[in-house]
Automatic annotation (TrEMBL):
InterPro entries reported for this sequence: Cyt_P450, Cyt_P450_CS, Cyt_P450_E_grp-I, Cyt_P450_sf
Cofactor field: heme
Record field: transmembrane: 7-27
Family, similarity comment: Belongs to the cytochrome P450 family.
MF annotations from Gene Ontology: metal ion binding; monooxygenase activity
Keywords: Heme, Iron, Membrane, Metal-binding, Monooxygenase, Oxidoreductase, Transmembrane, Transmembrane helix
Protein name, per record: Cytochrome P450 76AD1-like protein
SUPFAM superfamilies: Cytochrome P450 (SSF48264)
Annotated binding of heme, by residue: 443
Length: 503
């Protein structure tokens, strides 16, 4: 009997520990589970992956109609909380900004180690993030730097008008996305490297466009490795392979500029005038950055600056072509303001309230990053009585906020008039319109992006009328950024504009 008792002692002890552990865990988890946000039932293992679809922002918006503005979904092992009202967005981006400002980096970003050396993806509590953020703001996006590049923007937009004029003379349609991408590419590449990287209609420009777009798609598309990390090595959706291929093309270009400028700096009598230095000149002087760091910082600035801006312009033109009366109002305002000097000047844009309303309305209906970049809860957080558990992914569905009938009248209609006389802006303080995010993670390139979109749009509307033979297709394709599924091609018709006399 003693032998039996000794043989049972260890299993009984283990079972006792198990039941104690289970009971304690249940007691701790019960109130926590009771306060989790509502959400649809989960399937075993996969959770709610089957409910995401090809356009997650739309799927989430539809689900929130049933489960509310703070909704919980589970993707494999990843808990996700999605907010879709201005009030809930304010809680995430302002009230709990610090606790929710880390990132849940997708596997494609991890595959190139971009999460360690990126303004967009690095942990904001780290010294490295503060250094990268400071460099991007002071050397690129400060009011002084943005003002200093005004002449450059004017010159490059004038080149866009010249290209479109040539297409008009040949009665050829313009690929709005590609043409605007080339313009923005040359603005950004001059700010970064003091050179043009693109030319209109060239394969080289198309290659940059495809690389940038491919990287954005690889980062944003659903990926099983994001939900089941042990599957990462399989790369089942091919996102990591695509990301590496697209970014390596860009890194190769960046390395060429880095090597050239490093060699120039080593010359005994370096002729470079400090007043004419570009962004790369400035960051090469940073002792805390090696060449790998610089490549990844340039990748952030390059991708964020080019793709998002050209995509927004394309959506704006698509909406205006779909709403001829709105386009006519915008053109009439521009002509009335600019006819006095015959040239489009960037400062004139501040005197064009309807044009500014067109841009805001485009951001409302077509936010460049419809779910913003994913945030991560560093600790348990309470939002309106619901628990956002530690390590959960938090998504802000700005696409749904922009189309919320409780916030906007006729939310699906393109009506710039809704912003006239309203003090609503995109600078991160009005949570019903936050295409650039808000809080410490707000996009630092906001001031430059708005200026580029506005200047290109004013110039194209002032110099040309536009024809589109069929109904404009407004279908979307999802990545990190939101693109038109079918590129917009429209035929420019030259107006008797003083702007064209200078070509």
């Amino acid at each position: 009997m003693e032998i039996v008792s000794e043989n049972l002692l260890l299993p009984c002890f283990i079972l006792s520990c198990f039941f104690i552990f289970t009971t304690v865990r249940f007691l701790r988890s019960s109130p926590r589970s009771a306060t989790l946000p509502p959400g649809p039932p989960c399937l075993p293992i996969i959770g709610n992956i089957h409910q995401v679809g090809k356009l997650p922002h739309r799927s989430f918006a539809n689900l929130s109609k049933t489960y509310g503005p703070i909704m919980r979904l589970k993707f494999g092992r990843l808990n996700t909380v999605i907010v879709s009202t201005p009030e809930a967005a304010r809680e995430v981006l302002r009230t709990h900004d610090q606790a929710l400002s880390s990132r849940n980096s997708p596997n494609s970003i991890l595959s190139i180690n971009h999460h360690n050396v990126s303004v967009a993806w690095t942990d904001p509590s780290s010294p490295r993030w503060r250094l990268l953020r400071r460099l991007s703001v002071t050397q690129l996006f400060s009011p002084q730097r943005v003002e200093a590049t005004k002449a450059l923007r004017m010159k490059k937009v004038q080149e866009l008008v010249s290209f479109v004029n040539e297409c008009s003379e040949r009665e050829e349609a313009v690929d709005i996305s590609r043409a605007s991408f080339t313009t923005v590419l040359n603005i950004i590449s001059n700010i970064l490297f003091s050179v043009d990287l693109g030319s209109y209609g060239s394969e080289k420009s198309a290659g940059f466009h495809d690389s940038v777009l491919g990287g954005m798609e690889a980062a944003g598309r659903p990926d099983l490795a994001n939900f089941f990390p042990f599957l990462a090595f399989l790369d089942l959706q091919g996102n990591s392979k695509k990301m590496k291929l697209c970014t390596e093309r860009l890194f190769k270009v960046f390395r060429g500029f880095i090597d050239t400028k490093t060699a120039e700096k080593s010359l005994p009598n370096n002729p470079k005038d400090a007043s004419n230095s570009d962004f790369l000149d400035a960051i090469l002087d940073e002792a805390e950055l090696d060449n790998n760091d610089i490549e990844h910082l340039l990748l952030d600035m390059f991708i964020a600056g080019t793709d998002t801006t050209s995509s927004t312009l394309e959506w704006a033109m698509a909406e205006l072509l779909s709403n001829p009366e709105t386009m006519a109002k915008a053109q009439a305002e521009i002509e009335c303001m600019i006819c006095q000097n015959g040239l489009v000047q960037e400062p004139d844009i501040s005197e064009l309230p309807y044009l500014q309303a067109v841009v805001k309305e485009t951001f409302r209906l077509h936010p460049t990053v419809p779910l913003l970049l994913p945030r991560k809860a560093e600790t348990d957080v309470q939002i309106f009585g619901y628990l956002v558990p530690k390590d959960a992914q938090v998504l802000v569905n700005v696409w749904a906020i922009g189309r919320d009938p409780n916030v906007w009248e006729n939310p699906s209609r393109f009506e710039p008039e809704r912003f006239l006389g309203e003090d609503i802006d995109v600078k991160g303080k009005d949570y019903e319109l936050i295409p650039f995010g808000a809080g410490r993670r707000i996009c630092p390139g906001l001031p430059l992006a708005v200026k580029m979109v506005s200047l290109m749009l004013v110039s194209l509307l002032y110099a040309f009328d536009w024809k589109f033979p069929n109904m404009v297709d407004m279908d979307e394709t999802f990545g990190i950024t939101l693109h038109k599924a079918k590129p917009l091609h429209a035929v420019p018709v030259k107006k008797k504009s003083p702007l064209l006399k200078h070509l």
